[in-house]
Amino acid sequence: MAEAATGFLEQLKSCIVWSWTYLWTVWFFIVLFLVYILRVPLKINDNLSTVSMFLNTLTPKFYVALTGTSSLISGLILIFEWWYFRKYGTSFIEQVSVSHLRPLLGGVDNNSSNNSNSSNGDSDSNRQSVSECKVWRNPLNLFRGAEYNRYTWVTGREPLTYYDMNLSAQDHQTFFTCDSDHLRPADAIMQKAWRERNPQARISAAHEALEINEIRSRVEVPLIASSTIWEIKLLPKCATAYILLAEEEATTIAEAEKLFKQALKAGDGCYRRSQQLQHHGSQYEAQHRRDTNVLVYIKRRLAMCARRLGRTREAVKMMRDLMKEFPLLSMFNIHENLLEALLELQAYADVQAVLAKYDDISLPKSATICYTAALLKARAVSDKFSPEAASRRGLSTAEMNAVEAIHRAVEFNPHVPKYLLEMKSLILPPEHILKRGDSEAIAYAFFHLAHWKRVEGALNLLHSFRMIPYPLEKGHLFYPYPICTETADRELLPSFHEVSVYPKKELPFFILFTAGLCSFTAMLALLTHQFPELMGVFAKAFLSTLFAPLNFVMEKVESILPSSLWHQLTRI
User: Fold this and answer.
1) Residue 139, CB half-sphere, CA atoms under 13 Å: how many?
2) 79-101 confidence digits (pLDDT tens)
3) Nearest of 439, 376, 371 to residue 410 by alpha carbon
4) Annotated domain spans of the chain
5) What Å distances lie between residue 18 and 5, 23, 73, 103, 364, CA to CA?
């Protein structure tokens, strides 16, 4: 019985919603017709006359107060709407209207149970959104002591945010520590050092770890049987301590390279020892994994030092050897360092070979991959490309490939063209980037702007894509542009940098409406206060003009339907 009653109520509600959705105009005219027919018993004319007399007796001060109050209220609404839009990215009035009025007008409730059929698709899109907004280690990150700190000394600004440095500390603890660090005193000290927030405390801990290793230990095993000659050996050096000093204490790249070479000597020895013992248990396997990460990090940073110091060919060789020795370690994205170095050498055939391996549909994309591929294809046509000539004769196959490559790159990260075209100033790239975000665009343009300038006409070809088409965010070649990039980029980039936002948020209609209403009512209040008589004449003329068509229609209807019709209907 209850189910039948519930079903009847649902059908009644659906009928009412349907009638309101499609027949509201008919209802409106029916109500107007009834009001007109009942104008005599309802004494509408008398009431209108009374209201007219009352309005005529009002002084100009009342209208000043009325318009001033309207201006004040609309101004308060405008301030609230603007604050809500800046904080949440949407209009409060629009959100309330969609949430509460749309179901009454027959709209679809987004939270209804009908969404169960598309739960798999929603979960996939949510999973993709989380993946798209994952923060990645910047493969081209600078050196803190030799580059970031020097910027701070010169400008007095901090180029790195606390959030960015905290992510780096987490990376260091993941790559450079393991559960057995407490067995070696130096590693135990470094395990605490990576968690320190104070840079000076970290540097002091690194020096302490190195001092411990200077203590000689006598091994209770003779070198020769039945001999009194004892072996004297040094404890193994702490490679991670040298890494920390090279990253944070060294004030020049040359000093950092010197410390990294000492770290390489210590790290290579630890790696070889743990490689022999890795199959003896899970503890040794964890040590070997840690030592592998340390060795790869050191060699990669040494290659970056060589690149900074102008020894680009040496850097390329080191990166190639590293990728050949550890082909499965893709977390450091060494191929992006290799691409940048090869572009500096203008070895475009080698760049194409690297792209052929890493620009694969199964591998994660990056701005370096997409824009480098676009640069190579633009290089083939940019020196002879002319928009006017292309519009007359059409695009050739090579030009079409270049345009499609640039379109693909711009769709992946729409922030990059602003920096490559120098429409927006660059800052030092952060230590972590958000793919498809402003942070990734800064990191890419910081190192690759010179390569684009070197290719004649490449920036002119890119200039045609400076205005990003709005539908691009829907996703044609990639997933739709994630909405979480702005929040993450604001955490990664310093406060003095204006974060690039895409798509640009348009002001909601209700903000523009309340702004216009506030300005209009304030102007009316001012004019009424200054010129009360003149504004009264204008108001009467405006109202008479506004109601002239209505009076004309009412006179025509009066001639067809006289006022005595109601009395005649009551007699019937």
Assistant:
1) 23
2) 887 777 766 666 777 777 666 55
3) 371
4) 155-217+232-331, 346-496, 506-560
5) 20, 8, 36, 11, 48
